[in-house]
Amino acid sequence: MRVSLLQLSVDSTETAGDRRLRAAAKVRERAGDDLVVLPELWTAGAWAYDDWERDAEGLDGPTADVMSAAARAAGVWVHAGSIVERDADGTKYNTALLFDREGSLRGHYRKIHRYGFDTGEAVAMGGGSDIVTVPTEFGGLGLAICYDLRFPELFRGLLDAGAELIVVPAAWPAARLAHLELLVRARAVEEQVFLLACVAAGAHGGVQQAGHSMVVDPWGTVVAEAGDHEETVTADVDMAEVARIRSELPVLRDRVLGIPAPALR
């Protein structure tokens, strides 16, 4: 299975519309791949809060249109990162979109853990509530977004829902790059899955992005990693490694569930 992470540079010098066209062209260039992934909120900018209202869209909006067409043209699965989704009731969500090779929307995930500590995403967006995995020809594909990486219980839920591959689009601050690298590898080892983290480059909302998009295998080995500028990272992964590593080191069967919380003293 060949995967490509499109580490787009996101900044205020380019409109969301222009960036959509540029991203779609990059997807079309990946014909022959199996899965292409984009970063979190690459249209509006994850830290450009003032642009979210202007650039919010529906699940059938302009980003879905161009990504669906690009997936169909290239014959690849496309994880279109995430968009600022506006629901029918006006609530905004940070929502990931997954398209199959025919351009059909096969799954979407509303980010459960909202970043901001009473600012930004934490107050401007609603939170999702559903754990989402999508069956594909290369295995169960789990969906998470950026800040979710800090919450292992979500990833254990994705494992229990059948995930063998987890895709995490992100707009991670460069100042916390060490945390990103640690958490991506930890989640891969913990669930014994391939983990694809596609991270934005550039700067928006005054925040320099980390880049360093990564493909990590179920042993925690970094198979491929980008630098801190816009680039495309491509790697061949063998999904049979998931079953092999789970058999060789069968830690998941030793889970003990339902451990009661200790009484407060």
From TrEMBL:
Sequence ranges assigned to domain CN hydrolase in this UniProt record: 1-239
Name of the protein this chain belongs to: Carbon-nitrogen family hydrolase
Assigned keywords, A-Z: Hydrolase
PROSITE patterns in alphabetical order: CN_HYDROLASE, UPF0012
Lineage: Bacteria, Bacillati, Actinomycetota, Actinomycetes, Kitasatosporales
Position of the signal peptide: none
Organism of provenance: Streptomyces formicae
Family classification: Belongs to the carbon-nitrogen hydrolase superfamily. NIT1/NIT2 family.
Example GO molecular function: hydrolase activity
